[in-house]
Amino acid sequence: MNETFAREIIATTSAPPGFSVDVWHCETPAGGKEAITEKHRFPVIAWAVVRDGDWALKKPITEIEPVFLWNGRPVHTSQYRAMFSDVKPAPGQPKYTVGVRVNEPTAYVPL
Question: What pTM was computed for the model?
Answer without folding.
Answer: 0.80
